[in-house]
Amino acid sequence: MLVSSHVKTVLAWLVYTNVGDVENMRKILSDNFLDQIRPLSLGVPDLTIEPFLARMAANKIKFGIAEPTPDNIIEANNVVTIWTNSNGTTEHGFDWKNEYVIRFKFENDKIVNVYEWVDPTVVLAAFAKEDVVAEAQQYC
């Protein structure tokens, strides 16, 4: 299968996200970059490039997004959409697994928009436990 430069960039985004490689991530993002995670019930704000990279650099969550199979990649008109899964561990060791649909929009061969749709139930449950631990630690 012939892999386009946009798909290669998306695969690089996955690797950089997993390892927290801010320096290389910056190289593939447009100056007009916007990261959007949905649904809104997750409470994650839309982030422009600098806040996105700062969040990535400060991330205390062990995280892994799987590389999608070729059947789970769609590309058309400067947009690459993937379906994939991830797993992670919160700062205090609560595990979660999830499925994502992520749309990457390109402008001048750089990612200008990432729109992630995630099932919030698993993530919210793990982070609800995380919040309980954080609150309890205030009193210890």
UniProtKB/TrEMBL annotation:
InterPro entries: NTF2-like_dom_sf. Gene3D superfamilies: 3.10.450.50. This is SnoaL-like domain-containing protein.
